Amino acid sequence: MPRWHSSPISIPASTTDDPAPQTAAGRVGVLRHREFRLLFAGQAFSVLGDRIVTIALPFAVLSLPGGSAADVGLVMGANVLAFGLFVLVGGVVADRLPRQRTMIASDAVRAVVQGAGAFLLLTDRATVGSLVVIGLVYGAAEAFFRPAVLGLVPQLVGPQELQPANALLTLSMNGSMVLGPALAGVLVAVTSPGVVVAFDAATFVVSGITLLRLRPRPVPPAAGQGFREQLVGGWREVRTRAWVLGTLGLFSAYHALVIPAIYVLGPAYAKDERGGAGAWGLISAGFGAGAVLGSLLALRWRPSRPGVAVAATILVAGSQAVIVVAPVPTLLVAALEALTGACVALGFTVWETALQQHIPAEAQSRVSSFDHLVSVALMPLGYAALGPVAEVLGTGTTAAVCTGTTLAVGLLVLALPAQRRLTGVPEGADGAPADAPVAAADR
Hints:
Layout lengths: L33 H29 L6 H28 L2 H24 L5 H25 L9 H29 L2 H20 L14 H13 L2 H33 L2 H24 L5 H12 L2 H4 L6 H29 L5 H13 L2 H15 L1 H20 L2 H5 L22
Helix pairs in contact: 1-2, 1-5, 1-6, 2-4, 2-7, 2-13, 3-4, 3-6, 4-13, 5-9, 5-12, 7-13, 8-10, 8-13, 8-14, 8-15, 9-12, 10-12, 10-15, 14-15
C-alpha cells in the first residue's frame, strides 16, 4: 500500500492538471474533470441498479414458497440493520485507508453477494434465510462505501466545485427515483426478479471499474492511532461543532418521525381516501420530480449561510407527515410533495458541501459515518411505533405530532448561533477549517 502525504490539509489543493475553477465555472462544468466524470458515471449506473432492485426484491421474496409481507420486512430490514451496525466502522476505515480502495472493496463484495442472490433466484434455490444473509452482507459492505464517498469528492474537484459535484451526484440518485420504478416494473414483468438482481450486481462491477481508473489527489490518513481512538476522534469532530451536532439532531427527528409517517400513514390514507395505489404513485412521483429540480437548483445556488439553508429546507421537508394525510386534492398533495422534494435535495447537497468545506479532510469519512448512523438508527423504531400510535391518536393527530416535533427541533437548531454563523467560505485566513472548534461559551 503506498504511503500518502503526511502534511495536514483541510481541502486538497488543485494541481496544474486539475486547475481550481472560478466560482462561476462550477455547475455542470465540473464534469470536465476526468476523475469526477468517472465517479459520476459509475455512481449514476450503480444507484439506478439500487433503485430497481429495491422495487424488485419484495416481489422476489413474495415469489418464494410461503413468502409473506413479514418475510419482505425481514429481508429489507437485514440490509438496514447491518448498515447501522457497521457504518461507524466504515467511517474509521475510510479515513485510515485510501477511500478509493475502500469503495472498490465494497463494490466487489456487493457484486458477489448480489450475483449469488441472482443465481439462487434464477435457479429456484433461494430461501428467505439465504436472502436475509445476503442482505446482511450487502448492508455491511455498503456501510464502508457511503462514508468514503463524501471524503473522496474533495480529492477529485477544486474547493469551489464541491457543491456542483455533490449536486450532480444527488441528481443521479434523484433521477433514478423517477426512472428506477418504471424500469424495474418492465424488467420484472418481462423477465424475473432474479434478472433484476443480476443487473444490480453488474452495476457494481461497472462502478468498481470506474473507481479503479481514478487518480484522486492524496490526503493524509487519520493519525496512527487505534480504532477506538480514531472513532472517538471522529465523534470529537462532531461534538465540538454545534452546527454539526444540531443538524444531526434535526436529521434524527426527520428520519425517526417524518419518514416513517410518510411511508406508514401516507399509503394507508391513499388507500382509504384517495382511491388507492395510483394516487400514492402520483404523490411519490411529485416528490421525485421535485428532488430532481432541487438538485438542479443546487448546481446554481450557493447559500451564503449554509447552516441556515440546511435547517430551513429540512423544516419545510418536515411538513410532509401532515401533507400526505391532508384532506385536499391529490394533485395539490403531489405539488406540495414536489416542493418538499426540492428542499430535501437542496438541503442535503448543501449539508454535504459544508462538511467537506469545514471538516478536516482526514476526518470527513468518520463524520459522514455519524451522519449516516443518525439517519438509520431511529428509523426502525419509528416504523414500529407509528402504526400502533395512529390507532390510538388517529392518523391526523399522529402526523401532526411528527411534523410538530420535527419543526420544534428545527427551530431550536436555527436558534443556535453557530448554525447561523456558518458560512460557505472553505477555509479561514490561516488555512485552518473556517469553523475550527470553539469554546463552549461560544457554542
